Amino acid sequence: MDRVKIPDYTELTCTNLMIKLKIITKKMIQAEQVEFYSTREQFDNIKKPFSKNHYSLLGNKTEENKYHVIIKKN
Question: Quick one: CATH architecture of 14-73?
Fold first, then answer.
């Protein structure tokens, strides 16, 4: 089985992560999703913009300061 490596964006600033996510989500089609690892601060900052009607946001804490995040386009 080929496992897809989940990107780790914990080293990005919150601003750079938001820019990256805006570019990625703009290209997404309905029901497509993106997943990655983030810090708690990054996760807190993306909650508001990606919790709106067009997206579903799920974040699960995996370590002390690391979250597995999934953004799905509705």
Answer: 2-Layer Sandwich (3.30)
